[in-house]
Amino acid sequence: MEIRVRKNHTIDEMEEMIERYERLHHSIHRLKRRVIEDGCLSWAEIDDLMIWLTLIKNRQNVNLPQDILSLETTFELEYKETITYPGFEMSKFLTPKRLEIVDEIKKHPGKSIKELAENLDRDYKNVYDDIRALAQFDLVQLMKSGKSRIAWLPADTIEINI
Questions:
Q1: Does residue 6 sit in the same domain as residue 74?
Q2: 100 and 132 housed in the same domain
Q3: Does the first or last residue of the chain, that is N or C, have fewer Cβ atoms within 10 Å of its Cβ?
Q4: Residue 108 and residue 119: Cα distance in Å, rounded?
Q5: Domain of residue 74, residue span
Q6: Is 52 within 8 Å of 31 (Cβ atoms)?
Q7: pLDDT tens-digit series, residues 41-81
Q8: Distance in angstroms (rounded) separating the CA atoms of residues 81 and 101
Q9: Can you state the angle between helices 124-136 and 113-120, rounded to 10 degrees?
């Protein structure tokens, strides 16, 4: 199964993301060595490496005049990863209820899990469990906001090829 994620970013957003990865991992060479040579099994670090490499590649390809760069120019960031799990069945993972959650988050971003559960007329625990399952594949991400957790979509487009 291949998961392809697309997200549009302004140049400033791309630079902020690169700076965030530098603060988190110190250098791209260090992260690359950890993931590739040391055989790191952390999906988060693998994703960070792929996104960081794509950001740097996109930044190098941006050779626009300064007056154009000051506009709200956006660039598409795309990365993909191939995931293989023995016995994995997509139909059991992407259930109608989970797709309904993704749709609700897209329509109403910034809602807490409690608000999502209320909007969907579902039990909080079931919605939370489904969001955690979706978060394992980075289809949804969680962020703390006070005492609540906010679910958000990290991509504009998610394409899954089987």
A1: yes
A2: yes
A3: C
A4: 10
A5: 2-82
A6: yes
A7: 566 777 778 777 877 777 666 555 555 444 455 555 555 55
A8: 23
A9: 120
